[in-house]
């Protein structure tokens, strides 16, 4: 019998905390069961399997991250919004490495469509990009550029891979400036390519 008070939400939150401590890839149902002092089988009445738990952590972390980003960009536009977005993204990624890693997994598109946090992520991101007067498919391309740049930078920074003596924050700010210039001067090739 499952321990009283154990819920899918409590398990998800505990898994997110564990991910920040030991790494998202090291979160297991066994480790979570040990954390709560129950047998592994007790968890299956709350989560279907490890993939279900990981998806729940991804959705939780995605919601937390977009809440921080939304607060940062509120009332801002253009370069100011881009910088605020980027800084909130970086801060979350560095402060919550396990949760952040969860946001990078592929989640079933049906779950994404049903997730208010994931819809909000698209709204905030595309809203921030409105100042750059981009239309599809350029919007999708711009989102991919931002995500890959932010993710790559944060992944390298979190492992200490930037070895040059230049201040990492200064380089980050320059990268955001360069992204702003790229967005302002986005190549308009048309949609027939």
Automatic annotation (TrEMBL):
Keywords: DNA-binding, Transcription, Transcription regulation. This is TetR-like C-terminal domain-containing protein. Residues 5-65 form the HTH tetR-type domain. SUPFAM superfamilies: Homeodomain-like, Tetracyclin repressor-like, C-terminal domain. Residues 28-47 bind DNA. Pfam families: TetR_C_33, TetR_N.
């Amino acid at each position: 019998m499952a321990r009283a008070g154990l819920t899918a939400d409590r398990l998800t939150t505990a898994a997110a905390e564990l991910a920040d401590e030991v790494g998202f890839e090291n979160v297991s149902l066994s480790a979570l069961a040990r954390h709560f002092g129950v047998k592994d089988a007790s968890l299956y009445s709350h989560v279907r399997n490890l993939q279900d738990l990981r998806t729940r952590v991804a959705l939780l972390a995605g919601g937390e991250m977009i809440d921080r980003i939304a607060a940062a960009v509120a009332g801002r536009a253009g370069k100011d919004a881009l910088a605020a977005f980027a800084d909130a993204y970086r801060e979350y990624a560095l402060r919550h490495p396990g949760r952040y890693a969860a946001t990078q997994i592929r989640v079933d598109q049906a779950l994404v469509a049903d997730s208010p946090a994931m819809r909000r992520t698209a709204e905030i991101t595309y809203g921030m990009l409105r100042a750059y007067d981009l239309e599809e498919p350029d919007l999708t391309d711009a989102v991919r550029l931002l995500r890959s740049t932010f993710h790559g930078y944060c992944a390298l920074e979190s492992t200490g891979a930037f070895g040059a003596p230049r201040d990492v924050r200064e380089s980050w700010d320059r990268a955001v400036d360069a992204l702003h210039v790229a967005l302002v001067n986005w190549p308009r090739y048309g949609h027939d390519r």
